[in-house]
From TrEMBL:
It holds the Pfam family Peripla_BP_2. This is Cobalamin-binding protein. CDD domains: BtuF. It comes from Zoogloea dura. Gene3D superfamilies: Nitrogenase molybdenum iron protein domain (3.40.50.1980). Transmembrane segments: none annotated. Residues 1-19 form the signal peptide.
Amino acid sequence: MRLRHLAFSLLVFSGLARADVDLTDDQGKPVHLAQPARRIVSLAPHVTELLYAAGAGERVVGAVQYSDYPEAAKKVARVGSYTAVDMEKVVALKPDLVVAWKSGNRDAHLDKLRGLGIPVFINEPRKIDDVARSLSQFGRLAGTEAVAEPAAKAFRERYAALAARYSARPKVRTFYEIWNRPLMTINGEHLIADVMRLCGGENVFAKLPVLAPAIDVEAVLAAQPEAIVASGMGEARPEWLDDWRKWTKLPAVARGNLFFIPPDQIQRHTPRILDGAERLCGQLEEARERR
């Protein structure tokens, strides 16, 4: 009896392991896997982090430069950068799935991989809740739903709690500075703009047509933001954030609302986006108190 039960269990398990996976990616393209992926190459740092958060970290055999979170991701073989993928290295890793980033990877590279018969899944999160959706998708692709679904649920619950606390607060006109030379910001379609909305911030450049446009100082002065938020390149506050202090009549300067958030907490489409959101929400609360 025990042997029959064991045989039945093994049959069920093997059937699940071989179960087809059919998903539509964020570009609207169907992706079919004969079974959950076992060898995954990630072509963006945020994708690598999401795969680990979805319980698929042990299946990531290749990743691009700056895939540095969690710590284990640093040990994964490198296949170039997201803008300059080393195709030979990718193919040599014999992946059964490549997860790519539409905004960062080149179409020519992705088309070549598809031409070689390698399934490519495009990830393109634009809203905060897209992080939870990505976790669920990656869990299905790798067969790690037991980890991915609770992670997605926990993310949505934390997101809802922040929204309940901050989204209806009085609006704060906010300028987000990605970089200083060239001076760059984000429009209303960017993930960071969604974080602003969560915190009751109003993106002063929301109506610009480009996702991450270059602007000039005069445009910022004309927009009269109450808060300026910068990210920079690492954990240290960028020195160029203080360049705005020369414009003493700018509300953000006059009220001392020059804020910094580490880029990994607000520019990556991962669960850590809520760490950045919590920080931004607190900063905009300070701005309201200084009115």
